[in-house]
């Protein structure tokens, strides 16, 4: 009975935060606004990631025809995801090293703490494998690595499988964090701090802008390497993964 009550409480904590009934008391400290500023930057990057993921999903409808967009958006996703991991990682480090403002703000609900590493691993996996496919080219990407239960495993099928994992964990994360992220992203004050004014907007905008510029430059450098996929009759759009048998000519 006690275990059940704990489980219900854990789920209630997530639901309360997901619908906006519960907020972490992020202190507003210093020129950057401390934990509150960090939370806002994380919210901005999270919402931008959601937009980029939506665009990337659209390219999956015709990856061969929209391959250039698929690659460019994928590289931008990698840049913005790196920023979100960095901002989240900073908060984690500050919390677990005993920095008082972050300890005062507290951790997210338990289920989100469990889900967080899975989201990070899924994000890194799908983006890294996608960049590897570009670097390796279609021929190497379809070289069989192993056969499991009659299914051929190659780098292309690994990328597709990682995308499924990413879609599941990221979808759960979005459900739990969308409303709080919108509130944080659009707020200039923190009610928990008696309406304390959030400072550091300029530097946060600059960081986000610099990330987008870096991602755009990286996409311009990576895009030519994807040219070998343009001539493929069947490429990334081959979804779900191919079964066993010889690679497609």
Question: Which percent range fits the helix content?
Answer: 55-70%
- Spans where pLDDT lies below 50 across 5 or more residues: 233-249
Query: How would you classify the helix and strand content by structural class?
Result: mainly alpha
Largest sheet: 2 strands, antiparallel
Strand order of the largest sheet: 1-2
Number of domains: 1
Which percent band covers the strand fraction? under 5%
Write the layout of secondary structure elements.
Blueprint (H helix, E strand, L loop, with lengths): L1 H17 L15 H26 L7 H30 L3 H6 L4 H32 L4 E3 L2 E3 L1 H32 L2 E2 L5 E2 L3 H22 L4 H4 L19
Antiparallel strand pairs: 1-2, 3-4
Helix pairs in contact: 1-6, 2-3, 2-6, 2-7, 3-5, 3-7, 5-6
How would you describe this structure to a colleague?
With 249 residues, the chain is mainly alpha-helical. Strand 3 and strand 4 form a beta hairpin. Helix 3 runs antiparallel to helix 5. Strands 1-2 form a two-stranded antiparallel ribbon. The chain has one domain. It contains 8 helices and 4 strands, in the order αααααββαββαα. Helices cover 68% and strands 4% of the residues.
Question: Short summary of the structure?
Answer:
This protein has 249 residues and is mainly alpha-helical. It is 68% helix and 4% strand. It is globular, with a radius of gyration of 21 Å.
Task: Supply the key terms.
two-stranded antiparallel sheet, two-stranded antiparallel ribbon, about 70% helix, globular, disordered C terminus
